[in-house]
Amino acid sequence: MEHSEKDFQVLDALDSQEITTQRQLAEHSGISLGQVNYVLKTLLEKGLVKIGNFRKSPRKIGYVYLLTPKGLEAKSRLAANFVISKLKEYHFLRRKIAEKLAYIENKGNLHVVFIGPEIARDFVDSIIKENSMKLVMVGYCRKWEELKEYKHESFDMALVFDVNTEGIKTMAEATGISRKKLMPLL
Question: Quick count: other Cβ atoms within 10 Å of Cβ 173?
Fold first, then answer.
């Protein structure tokens, strides 16, 4: 039985709290109300979710969406598959970045400035240390505009975490730094 990430989000939201409306489910799962309606119908048909009556009032009936034992099992399987998938992506990305850093090092570019999110900088720094590279991070910028604060001679290469070729051209023109010293990391 094939399940999607949206199935997991709905099952996870239902497992973590009592939900009585599709609107609540949309808020807690992070997916749109229309998608919740579609996913919920599918999960109900497959027997992963059931609707239970939680108000015994003669004037008003209230319903709650509940996971069935089959739904709990599916959620656990989806969670395990999700973790395995993300670990594979993580290791692939780590290997790809290590190869790029080794290439930079082999070209004699040892002093680098990192441009991007702090968590990505820490990730790159851990790869440098793990592989005993000679690269040294001499600077860090969250945004490429901050690169203007560095003297061009103080680094061999600026590693840009998330940028395309057009972005490199824009950076070079705005900072006066040679395009050869600006390298996209991914």
Answer: 10
Distance CA 120, CA 65 (A): 39
pTM exceeds cut of 0.85: no
- What are the extents of the domains in the chain? 5-85, 107-184
Phi-psi region of 126 (alpha: psi -120 to 50; beta: other; left: phi over 0): alpha
Residues 157 and 151: their CA atoms lie apart, in Å, by 12
The neighbouring-strand residues paired with 51 are 65
Whether 156 contacts 112, CB under 8 Å: yes
DSSP structure class, residue 141: E
Length of the chain: 186
The answer, yes or no, to whether residue 41 has pLDDT greater than 70, is: yes
CATH topology of domain 107-184: Rossmann fold (3.40.50)
Structure tokens at 80: 């395990």
Q: Tell me the CATH architecture of domain 5-85.
A: Orthogonal Bundle (1.10)
pLDDT at 185 over 60: yes
